[in-house]
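Bug #77: duplicate submission created two jobs. Keeping one. Sequence:
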Amino acid sequence: MAREKEAERAAEAEGTPERSYREQLDFLNPIARPLASRKLTRKLYKCIRKAAKHKQIRRGVKEVQKFINKGEKGITVLAGDTQPIDVYCHIPIMCEDRSLPYAYVPSKSDLGAAAGSKRPTCVIMIKPHEEYQETYDECLEEVEALPLPL
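Kept job's structure:
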């Protein structure tokens, strides 16, 4: 009984309870393709956390767009639940034109949290770095294996 009350208090302290991967899929945009699997989503979040630790990420539409135009290489991760889609619908096209790998994950709040921010983030670019090269290469291989939308 006491443990249940402690668990309820902990959930209230955190604010909104976290939604599962399946529940997050209900809020996806129609353009969210290729969508990362649950396993790949976890790997991408892990890679983002490592990259943020070494300051090797680009966060936000304006910053990612600027560095894609400058020719910077990396994995672009987009949030699938961003509304309205006009905010970032041009980013996948830019990535395809420059042969950059990209993938969608289901939640912008989880994407922002993985980057070490309290704010939700709709686009992040992970740059390669020797400190987490193995994790980066794993993610890169799996993201490139995802089928591109038609």
